[in-house]
Amino acid sequence: MTVIPIKPTVEAAAFNRSRQAREAEVMLDKLIDDFDENPKSMQYFYDLFRTVYIHGVTLPRPAGPQVGMTCIQAPEELIYAVGATPIRLCNGAYHYDQIGADFMPAKSCSLVKATLGRLHDQEKGVPRIGKLDMIVNPSTCDQKKKAGVMMEDMGYPVHDLEFPNVKESEASRVYWQRSVRDFAVRLQQLTGKKLTRNRLNAAMARTRRAQIAFRALHNLRRKAPSLVLGKDIFLVTNAYFFDDLERWTAATEALVEELKQRDADGFNAAQKKAPRILFTGSPPIFPNLKLPLLIEEAGGVVVADETCSANRMLYDMPVVDEWMVNHMIDSLADHYLKPCTCPIFTRNDDRRRRLIDLARDFNADGVVYQAFSGCQVYEMEQRSVAKTLNDAGIPMLYIETDYSPDDMGQLTTRIEAFLESIKARKRQAKVS
Ligand code: SF4
Ligand code: SF4
Question: Looking at CB atoms within 10 Å, which of 182, 259, 288, 306 has the fewest?
């Protein structure tokens, strides 16, 4: 059984009484207590979130620099290969969203506001992370681009990882490969360690083991009846942002084994006839797991997702069979560009294709699309996504929201109505 090293401190005791700890506690308690028969192996993740988010404990990290990442487009294998530790900084706390609102425009994305809100006091160090030696900020959406400069103004060393607006052209591919090579150079300067073929291979072997564990988990979600709820999967993948890589992998492998046993026992984690939901859009990040929570409290089950806090972050495994380090970096860069379905791209046919594939593979009855208010790219893509799904006979519920808990009542009503309409549709299909 994987154990989280806990060292309570005086600071941790004070943190425990803070608003952010309370916000995390309310969400975590709901995720655990509102459901029966949570998988036993989820205890590791429940304890991890309680330790870090509620007790405010900073996890021990390996020696070497810490590199904050503001998006999944930064190749973490390069960071591990030079002996540094990546930490994803995307934040889901309403508490930090409100702090970020003091210096961001009123209509900006909660994710970016909360990420900046958490980083704002560089003097005190980043809560639950401590000192960051560098932040890598892929220049994806406009808000992320401008946020990088604001982080620099706060005193952080920021590396802008230049990201192309299109992914189909050879020119953008070459531009991105060059950008990733520059990042590799900057990392080597930071750590003083040379990036070698062996180090990169070793780093890729570590992340691959984690990705294999995730893929096994992902594939088990195809099963009907469902073996696990989506709210737990989002906790597992959110833990990947900050947990020790090997500990996370071992805990995920344990969960996979338990789910296999559940499958053999004919276990059903969801309600009978629970509508199967595919989740897409702006990423659910703890403690803002309100939509997955509301869907499953209302009797649905999230069976798959197309988000950068879960599936998009871990599904695709880099396969690099080059011999020269620079060629390995180029291959790695390709791996990060080609499968990306983030709406920041000018065209995004891949995203619609991926959604249809996921809906079919996972036998989804409907799609819930979350767009954070102020995220223009997710807001703008919703019409074309809805049309594609509609043409394929898959209903979609579009929800524009933010990190505030104020709309939970109204969202519950909309989600319940959506799930009811799916059930009615299925009944109808049975009769005709
Ligand atoms: S939504 Fe897109 S730009 Fe934002 S963190 Fe996710 S992958 Fe990166
Ligand atoms: S949700 Fe939208 S605005 Fe926010 S980080 Fe992602 S792409 Fe950018």
Answer: 182
- The domain total for the chain is 1
Q: Ligand 1 test: best mutation among 342, 369, 379, 380, most atoms within 8 Å of CB?
A: 342
In the 8-state DSSP scheme, what is residue 244?
-
Boundaries of domain holding 399? 206-315+344-431
Six token digits for residue 29 = 């308690």
Can you tell me which residue has the tokens 């492998």?
Answer: 253
Query: Could you give the CA distance from residue 185 to residue 164 in angstroms, rounded to a whole number?
Result: 19
**Can you tell me which atom of ligand 2 is nearest the CA of 90?**
5
- Classified as helix, coil or strand, 205 is helix
Are the CB atoms for 108 and 403 separated by under 8 Å? Answer: no
Give, for ligand 2, the residue of 375, 381, 399, 401 to mutate: max count of ligand atoms closer than 8 Å to Cβ.
375
| pLDDT top residue among 63 and 110 | 110
192 C-beta neighbours (distance < 10 Å), count: 9
CA proximity to 51, closest of 19, 92, 86, 3:
3
pLDDT, residue 270, reads: 95
* Mean pLDDT score, 5-30: 77
Least Cα distance to 318 among 211, 242, 241 occurs for 211
Q: Look at strands 366-372 and 396-401 and give their pairing.
A: parallel
Residue 402 tokens read as: 């933010």
CA nearest neighbour of 393 among 362, 419, 422: 422
Classify residue 143: in a domain, yes or no: no
Distance CA 267, CA 192 (A): 52
pTM: 0.95
User: Within 13 Å of residue 211, how many CA atoms lie on the same side as its CB?
Assistant: 17
Q: What spacing in Å lies between the alpha carbon of 373 and ligand 2's midpoint?
A: 10
Q: Please, which residues have CB within 8 angstroms of residue 139's CB and are 6 or more apart in sequence?
A: 145, 148, 160, 161, 162, 163
The CATH code of the domain that includes 369 is 3.40.50.11900
Q: Is residue 190 part of a domain?
A: no
Q: What is the pLDDT of residues 267-295, one digit of tens each?
A: 999 988 999 999 999 999 999 999 999 99
Task: Tell me, in angstroms, the distance from the centre of ligand 1 to residue 283's CA.
Answer: 8
DSSP, collapsed to helix, strand or coil, labels residue 298 as coil
Indicate whether 157 belongs to any domain: no
